[in-house]
Amino acid sequence: MRREDRRITEDNEIVDILHSAEIVHLGLMDEGYPYIVPLHYGFIYEDGKLTLYMHGAVEGKKLDLIRSNENAFIEIDNNNGIVSGGEIPCRYGAAYASIMAKGKAEIVENVEEKIKGLELLMSNQTHRNFEITPMMTRSVSVIKFSAEEMSAKARKVAAK
């Protein structure tokens, strides 16, 4: 990371980003080109390890791509506003917090793990707890992303 002063290493700050963001951008490979899909997610972050759960249709391009190549990359960000540069346009910037990670994507087949992933997703997206039944899992696919390398960084708006 070029800007070490913006690196985030504290687990509680990483979890805050994961809780406050709504969308993950999942990057897969499609015949040598990146294929990036925005998805809702749920997560587990324990002992510095990040696991995301995403959902979608039971068939489609992203599932086909995961079956052919499990390597994946994710990006999550929060746009926290503009950093003013006053009267000098080139001094303006963005306040943000972001997480990027490379790892492996897999299609979850185990019903209990699908339930767990969907419950985490619903909790993260709605801030409510739902009970997911095995029958509910039949109409969706669940994708699990396991991060192998991860970085987080932020640029905060200076206090006035």
Structure description:
The protein is of the alpha+beta class and 160 residues long. It has one domain: Pnp Oxidase, Chain A (Roll), CATH 2.30.110. Helices cover 21% and strands 44% of the residues. It contains three helices and seven strands, in the order αββββαββαβ. A seven-stranded antiparallel β-sheet has the order 2-1-5-6-7-4-3. The radius of gyration is 17 Å and the shape is globular.
Q: Which structural class is indicated by helix and strand composition?
A: alpha+beta
CATH architecture: Roll
Q: List how many beta strands DSSP finds.
A: 7
Strand content: 35-45%
CATH superfamily: Electron Transport, Fmn-binding Protein, Chain A
Secondary-structure element pattern, one letter each: HEEEEHEEHE
CATH class descriptor name: Mainly Beta
Query: Main beta sheet, described?
Result: 7 strands, antiparallel
Give the overall form: globular
**Alpha-carbon distance between the termini?**
28 Å
The overall number of domains is 1
Q: Supply Rg.
A: 17 Å
**Helical content band:** 10-25%
Strand order of the largest sheet: 2-1-5-6-7-4-3
Number of helical segments with 4 or more residues: 3
CATH topology: Pnp Oxidase, Chain A
User: What is the averaged pLDDT score?
Assistant: 92
